[in-house]
UniProtKB/TrEMBL annotation:
Domain HTH merR-type: 4-71
Organism: Alkalimarinus sediminis
The protein, known as: MerR family DNA-binding transcriptional regulator
Source organism, top-level taxon: Bacteria
CDD domains given in the database record: HTH_GnyR
Keywords noted in UniProt: Coiled coil, DNA-binding
Entry keyword Coiled coil: yes
Parts forming coiled coils: 79-116
Family annotation (SUPFAM superfamilies): Putative DNA-binding domain
PANTHER family: HTH-TYPE TRANSCRIPTIONAL REGULATOR YFMP (PTHR30204:SF58), REDOX-CYCLING DRUG-SENSING TRANSCRIPTIONAL ACTIVATOR SOXR (PTHR30204)
Record GO terms (molecular function): DNA binding; DNA-binding transcription factor activity
Length: 127
C-alpha cells in the first residue's frame, strides 16, 4: 500500500502552515483525496510540495515550479524537466548577478553621498 500523509504531517515535516498547503492545493499543485473532511496526500503530493518549497528557496515563482512539476515524465528520463530546470537555474543566476551589480553600484553611490554629507556637515560645523 502506498504511503499517505495528512495535512498536519506535511505541515510539520516541511515547517509550513496548513494554510500554505491548502493554497498550493487551490493552485492545482497538490491533489489530495478526501476521507470525509480529511485531506489525504499521496507520496507524489509530498514530492511536489518538496519541489515547490525548493523552487521557492531558489527564487522560482510558483508558476515556474508548477511548470517544472508538470514536466515530470520518468518514462523519458525527465530530460525535458531537467533541461528546463537548467535553463531556469541559468536565468536565476543571471538575475542574481545583475542584482549583485546593482547593489554594488548603489553601495558606491551611498558611500559617495555619505562622504559629501559628512564633508558638508564638517564644513558647516567649523563655521
Amino acid at each position: 500500500m502506498a504511503k499517505t500523509y495528512l495535512i498536519g504531517e506535511l505541515s510539520k515535516e516541511f515547517d509550513v502552515t496548513t494554510r500554505t498547503i491548502r493554497f498550493y492545493e487551490s493552485e492545482g499543485l497538490l491533489a489530495p483525496t478526501r476521507d470525509g473532511q480529511k485531506r489525504i496526500y499521496s507520496d507524489q503530493d509530498r514530492v511536489n510540495l518538496k519541489l515547490i518549497l525548493r523552487g521557492k528557496r531558489l527564487g522560482f515563482s510558483l508558476a515556474e515550479s508548477k511548470d517544472l512539476i508538470e514536466l515530470y515524465d520518468p518514462e523519458s528520463g525527465n530530460t525535458k524537466q531537467l533541461k528546463t530546470l537548467l535553463e531556469k537555474i541559468e536565468q536565476q543566476r543571471a538575475l542574481l548577478a545583475q542584482q549583485l551589480t546593482d547593489i554594488q553600484l548603489m553601495q558606491a553611490e551611498l558611500d559617495d553621498a555619505e562622504l559629501r554629507c559628512r564633508e558638508a556637515f564638517t564644513h558647516s560645523c567649523a563655521e
